[in-house]
Amino acid sequence: xxxxxxxxxxxxxxxxxxxxxxxxxxxxxxxxxxxxxxxxxxxxxxxxxxxxxxxxxxxxxxxxxxxxxxxxxxxxxxxxxxxxxxxxxxxxxxxxxxxxxxxxxxxxxxxxxxxxxxxxxxxxxxxxxxxxxxxxxxxx
Length: 140
Prior knowledge:
This protein has helices at residues 3-25, 55-71, and strands spanning 31-36, 41-44, 75-87, 93-103, 107-117, 123-132. It is of the alpha+beta class and 140 residues long. The chain has one domain (3-132). It has a six-stranded antiparallel sheet with strand order 2-1-3-4-5-6, sandwiched between helices. It is globular. It starts with a helix and ends in an 8-residue tail after the last strand. The mean pLDDT is 91.
């Protein structure tokens, strides 16, 4: 499999999980997942210092955990997902799931999936868009 294919497999694990969290709780804290060298996927977590930590604290902690695993060559792909408000092409604020995907073979992408509350608090997800991501786990 290519690096892109492996990141898509990782996305296929983490995205449904955070969608389910949103459906159930209407929010979620940042979540991480990694693919090891054998292709196995596992979710990662960090120890929070407070009952309601800031999302950026969790994102930074997950990034460091994934970076440490990458330095030890234990993983080949990383995903970190969080809830964000982004601006759409018309300048409107839109709720979105953001997933940062990165692969050791220099593949990086950031995925955005917009959503909105529908009738009876049911969440409606829209199309997924992608942009070139950051190099946070495997510095170039």
